[in-house]
Design brief:
Number of helices: 7
Bound molecules: zinc ion
Number of strands: 9
Order of helices and strands: EHEHEHEHEEEHEHEH
Number of domains: 1
Shape: globular
Helix content: 25-40%
CATH class: Alpha Beta
CATH superfamily: Glycoside hydrolase/deacetylase
Distance between the termini: 36 Å
Strand content: 5-15%
CATH architecture: Alpha-Beta Barrel
Radius of gyration: 17 Å
Length: about 250
């Protein structure tokens, strides 16, 4: 299976050492990822270092190199305990809020990015959670793409095109099937083992730059397909919860 990479939680206060190390790895293999930039980060969990004053210039530089940028929420603060349409987690910045409020939040995020000279029509929902109102708010604010859902081909759902993610990162190693998926990276907390895993994966030559998604054949998401995806996400959450219960 071919794969693209998305990097979450890109903020002025991120772990710069890990980010730079992973960036060098991607550059060595000629792979340009999608980065999820938080318009105005207020999440203390993402404040790993002092804010980098050169952060926004760096983002512009990456874009010029061919990196793609997604809007990763607004403040990256979870306001509800709703899993929404893709319930991988039970926290959300958006799912469960009124349409009006979601429209205001998404418009605000877009304005903040614009003021930094960044325009994008790709959305990366924090904690993978969004609901129908989020999708409507996105459409009304000119967003066309969401990086989420499970799968190996882009699909259309509620007039938004989804570029899906891999349910398990090891699937990409094992399966010989065709198709394209996205691996989700959190460089803030990346371990040595993960660096080794990704290097091995990139060596296979199956890693593509994120714009490859635009060349893939789209399919329509059916009600059955959505139900399957919903159950996989809910099932994964249950497994994770049970595991952490056992550990405790
Ligand atoms: Zn995030």
């Amino acid at each position: 299976m071919r794969f693209t990479i998305r990097m979450d939680d890109i903020t002025p206060g991120m772990n710069r050492g890990n980010f730079e190390r992973f960036r060098r790895l991607l550059e060595a293999y000629g792979v340009c990822p999608l980065i999820g930039v938080v318009p105005e980060c207020r999440d203390p969990m993402l404040q790993v270092e002092e804010d980098d004053p050169a952060f926004w210039d760096m983002v512009h530089g990456l874009r010029e190199q061919g990196w793609q940028i997604a809007m990763h929420g607004l403040y990256h603060i979870y306001t509800t305990r709703k899993g929404g349409l893709f319930p991988l987690n039970r926290d959300s910045e958006f799912a469960g809020l009124s349409l009006e409020r979601q429209k205001r939040m998404i418009a605000k995020g877009k304005r903040i990015l614009s003021s930094r000279g960044i325009e994008t029509d790709i959305f990366m929902p924090p904690s993978h959670s969004y609901d129908r109102a989020t999708l409507q708010a996105l459409r009304e604010n000119g967003f066309r793409y969401v990086t989420d859902g499970f799968g190996t081909a882009p699909y259309e759902y509620e007039d938004i095109i989804f570029f899906p993610i891999a349910a398990r990162k090891t699937d990409v190693m094992k399966q010989k099937t065709d198709g394209l998926t996205t691996l989700v990276m959190h460089t803030n907390s990346m371990t040595e083992e993960e660096f080794r895993f990704y290097e091995k994966l990139l060596k296979t030559g199956r890693g593509l730059s994120y714009d490859a998604w635009h060349r893939e054949k789209k399919r329509k998401q059916t009600a059955a397909g959505h139900a399957r995806e919903y159950l996989t996400a809910a099932g994964k959450r249950t497994v994770v919860r049970l595991r952490s219960y056992v550990k405790r």
